[in-house]
Amino acid sequence: NTLLVDGEGQLIPSPEANRALKQVWEILDLASEHSKSQGDDIHPAASLYSFFESSCESAVQCGDMTERERELVLGMSQMWGAYVGDGVELQSLKFFYLEDCIEGGTHQNHDCFIPTNYQKIIARIATVPLAQGNMQFNTLMTSVEHRTGESRPVCVTTSDGKAQYFDDIVVTTPLGWLKQQKESIPQLHPRITSAIDSISFGRLEK
Predict the structure, then answer these.
(1) 175 φ, ψ to 5°?
(2) DSSP letters along 153-196, please?
(3) Which of 73, 131, 154, 175 lies 20 to 30 Å (CA to CA) from residue 80?
(4) Cα separation of 178 and 196, whole Å?
(5) pTM above 0.85, yes or no
């Protein structure tokens, strides 16, 4: 039996909770199949939650789901975030098929495991710093500025008051901090800020 508590802290009767959970998994299966078969036609902004909403709406219109069941199913859909690490509103419907569990099977049928997401990108970015870098330990960067008219236009000021000038710099920060503090890095191109808002952390890199 499924133990389910509603938003007011009341225990949902087991038959009702069991049916809602069954409906959740049925919609998840439909979403996965839809992602596999129609992925090229799915808008990149479409989320798993939007698929839940449309599926519930269709079921209610057809009489296969009550309003109460819709409320329970949409609420229980949030549990999928615990599996993947993002809320269902942020999970891509277009690429939802990639969330299939890794299983056995024949060479043609079994799922692929991707050992890393960003390794080649990171390796390319790191080429020049690794070859020519001058490591400065116990040095806190306090600001970054772009100064026109300088032979090296990027000015980095450190906590000891020194200003250092560079052609380009690479700054690494936690992604969550960067999403909330984009304004701390001035003059970012809108294309870059859009990419920061859109990117999510690779599950296999955590």
Answers:
(1) -60, -40
(2) -EEEEETTS-EEEES-------HHHHHH-GGGSTT--HHHHHHH
(3) 175
(4) 8
(5) no
